[in-house]
Every structure is written in structure tokens, then in C-alpha cells.
Design a protein that fits this description.
Strand order of the largest sheet: 1-2-3-4-5
Structural class: alpha+beta
Order of helices and strands: HEHEEEE
Number of domains: 1
Number of strands: 5
Largest sheet: 5 strands, antiparallel
Strand content: 15-25%
Number of helices: 2
Amino acid sequence: MRRHAGFTLIELMVVVAILGILGATAMPILNIYQQRAYGSEAALMLKRILDAEIMYFLENEKFFPEDGTSIDIFKNDPPTKQEIQDVKDALNVPIPVGHNLNFQIQTFPATADGFCQVTISASFNLFKDGVKEINGIVDREGKITIF
């Protein structure tokens, strides 16, 4: 009796089942790594923006943008949005667009306790404890508080 080279249907079904199980277990792990990446990006961008605000304050004796105003940059904004260019020109920090992160830079009146607040948020959890945003404040003395 002559045997033909190839795989039987049962062997192929077993391989497909094993691949399905591996794929199903890999998806949660992929989501965890993606969450860590976005959380790291948010934390790094927050620190860069706050450091740039300190430099801007030292040069201009005020925070960016003007007192009492806010700049909002959303994940689906076009790269040509004027606020993105304004932040890049003033703070020398390019804001990444399309990275699923929303940015808000807000200043409060330049009184003795004036400060700048930066909020970076997402529609999903950025950190493992379920937090969807990270905030940072820099005051007139250059003290940074991240919460």
C-alpha cells in the first residue's frame, strides 16, 4: 500500500485549534502592553510640556497660553490645527496627533498663586489602576506637581 504525502483533516483541525487558543490568550497581553505604552507616552509628554512651561515662564514671566485661557488638542484633530503649531512655536514641544491622547493646557491668572495645568487624557485606561488621565501643575516658583 502506497502512502500519500500530506496532512490529514484531523491534524489540520488540531493545528487550527492550537493557533486559536494561542491567539485568544495573546489578545489580553497585547492590550496590557498597549496600555503601558500609552501611559508611558502620556507621562513623558506631561513632563516635557511642564518643563517647557517653566522655560517659557523664565523667558516671558508668564505661562503659555495667555492667562485664563486654554488650549485643547484632541486625538482626531488634523495636524494643521493652529493650536498645535502655537504650542510647538511657544514651548518647542511637538504634540503628537493621532496617538489616542487628548491634551489640555490651561493657565490661571498671574496673581501671586498663578499656575499652569496640563491634562492628558484618553478614552481608555492609561494605567493599571483604571485612571484615564494624568494631570500636572507648575507654579510660578517652578514647582511641579503631578497627580
